[in-house]
Queue: 3 jobs
Job 1
Amino acid sequence: MIYDRKLHASKPALPEGYEKAFTIDLQSDKKTYLIVNLSALAVAAVMFLIGCLVTPFRALYADGSISVLLLRAGVLIVGSVAYIILHELVHGITMRYYGSKTVKYGFTGSYAYAGSSDFYDRASYIVITLAPVVFWGIVLLILCLVLPASWFWVAYMIQIFNISGAAGDAYVTFRLIRSPRDILISDSGVKMEVYRRTEE
């Protein structure tokens, strides 16, 4: 099972018999960076249209009160910033779940990150990659279902941010699924280095 942390425990050092296969660096690889971000914008646009079918966007400001609208805008801004921090925190918690003793957090100027010097197998790293979007996706979905229509868009816009912002995570997952099962991944937070077994 992918949730068996003993079976999928991280390794503090690269075992013998492995060599670097490829590197994923979404910040330095401009072509991939562009593709991922255009994909994120497309997902955000589709989700916005779906949201309009569920609850008209005018519900956000339909009561006509400037003070209430400013309150919602403030909650949205604070909620979005909190989401970024909590998103990376879930990455970090999942890394620790699989045995990492030290997780570092940071901000590059274009995105926040959680990283570790440990090495993860393919299954555990895919869980680490997708854990935040799944966990917060469920939390935000519940909020969208229980909040009144006037507050729906506050939660839903953060959900759009959550799902569309996972375009990079989806790209990484796609690359790893197409790789051999026995690869190991190191994620410094800035880039991911993938190692494969050398042929004996």
Job 2
Amino acid sequence: MTLNAVAVFCGSSFGNDPVYADAARLTGRTLAERGIAVVYGGGHVGLMGTVADAALEAGGKVIGVIPRQLDDRELAHHGLTELHVVESMHERKAMMAELSDAFIALPGGAGTLEEIAEQWTWAQLTIHSKPCGFLDVARFWSPMRQMVEGMVSSGFVRAEQSGIVSFSNDLDELLDLLERPGSWTDKWGAPTDGPPQP
């Protein structure tokens, strides 16, 4: 499967360790170098802005999707390839999903977790068949990985759905995992095969 565009979810803050910003820069630059467009939340602040700037500096395409309320607060990045101003957070997430072939979560807070979890849920329900990846920077997502394993062992997530989410502390490895054709069962056991669908 070829990744033409990847949605990146990450913090609107920088966190308290420079390694997070380093990972954001690496992500933006690597996606651009691979010819993969960055789809993200459209802001110029925190790790979000760092990803966008790094991709643009490397000659990549960056598509931002931001709710009007945040645009009105002058949080939007106005140097992007494309900037879509939408009316709600729900519309933002739906457009980002439509524009993307896969999803990556970098370190972030509640919004980052909510965004990647929703796309994971949509894949479980076969609303789409697009994979999700967690870039485990400095073991930030290791508790999440343990939680997913616990969900499987406790019977709340089918083991057959484990291909929806991938974890790695190596970005190139994570992208390679996301490029594999999606093949998993839906929440009730029906197979989902083939390339991502809108």
Job 3
Amino acid sequence: MYIEDCSATKTLTAAATRAMDRLYDSGARLMRRVYDRRLHDTAVLDAARHFPDAERFQSNWRTIRAEALEVAAGLARIPRFHEVMREQADISANDGRDWRMYIMQAYGVRFPSNLARCPALAALVAQSPDVLSASFSFLAPGKYIPPHRGPFRGILRGYLVLSMPLDAEGMPAATLSVDGRAHRLHDGEFMLWDDTFEHEVRNASDEVRIVLLLDIRRRRMPLDLRLLSNAVIALVRLGIRLRGSRIAV
């Protein structure tokens, strides 16, 4: 009887997980349609116009990198992305290679123990109220993140390269492709982009690629979309608080 009960519980749990995944996908598609009708920005945006604080992060990239490398010394303890967000298993657990995320802040929810290990970055985030999330992204050698789209145009994605492997020609060996265009950034370079456009990442090297990822509040929107974005951010923030124990390292 106990074995049967356990089997039934696992079946129900799996069914509930699939239902939640379908709900997430449906909600993401609906959310994109709402914003797509009103926003017509390109996939990659001018950081000086949309996020002037980018210069502050970029000018301090070496200090941020030093903190990221200290965190990387305990890489095995940092959760894989799908261990933080099970909805991302298809892009995080797709090939058996690690994509680990050291999350210091998520949609305004701070993780003090993680932030405490990176005081310089924590100070920069505190000075930039539009930065909702800040994470170090560690992409394992050979890791491929297949094409996917983010759910929500109310934020923009900041991408600051901290440690980029190079190929035999001295070119960046990890590629971020957004809306069909490949971007190869060197250490210290910053890109601001909209992750609701289809994108993929490939680390074609035998070294870990490290970048700082920022989620940045999109300000240049009509009032009704700003209000909708504030509501979505509050809802996501609540969900993060409920699963926060998975994030703190």
